[in-house]
Amino acid sequence: MPKSTKHAMEWSVGLTILALIGIIIGLILTKPLIIMVFLLPTVIYEVYRTEGKSTKWASWALLCVFVLEIVLIIFKINYNLADLLGRDQQYIGEYLVPLGDIKIIAPIIIAVLSILLLTKTWGKYTKYLAAVIIVGSFSVIYTLDPVVFREMIKIAIEKFLEEIPS
Question: What are the φ and ψ backbone dihedral angles of 103, each rounded to 5 degrees?
Answer without folding.
Answer: -65, -25
